[in-house]
Amino acid sequence: MKLKEIKDLSNDELMQKEKALKKELFDLNYHRRMGTVEKPARFRQIKRAIARILTVIRERELENERNKKRK
After folding, report:
1. pLDDT for 14
2. Separation CA 63–CA 56 (nearest Å)
3. Are 56 and 13 in contact (CB under 8 A)?
4. pLDDT tens across 13-52, in order?
5. What CATH fold (topology level) applies to the domain 3-70?
6. Has this prediction a pTM greater than 0.70?
7. What DSSP line would sit under the chain, residue for residue?
8. Domain boundaries, the chain
């Protein structure tokens, strides 16, 4: 998922996307333990997408705090 796509989503959509990615990561870990992972590179993609989402959420929180202090 591209950063621009992530920034276009609302906070609620980001939370839902994060939850879905974490579930997919959990499922992939299960398959890895069973030895049936088809795309091992997907682990890295999912982890990076989660990190990007969390970063955007945190940036928005900090921006809101700064705006509250200015008022």
Report:
1. 97
2. 11
3. no
4. 999 999 999 999 999 999 999 999 899 999 999 999 999 9
5. Helix Hairpins (1.10.287)
6. yes
7. --HHHHHTS-HHHHHHHHHHHHHHHHHHHHHHHHT--S-THHHHHHHHHHHHHHHHHHHHHHHHHHHHHH-
8. 3-70
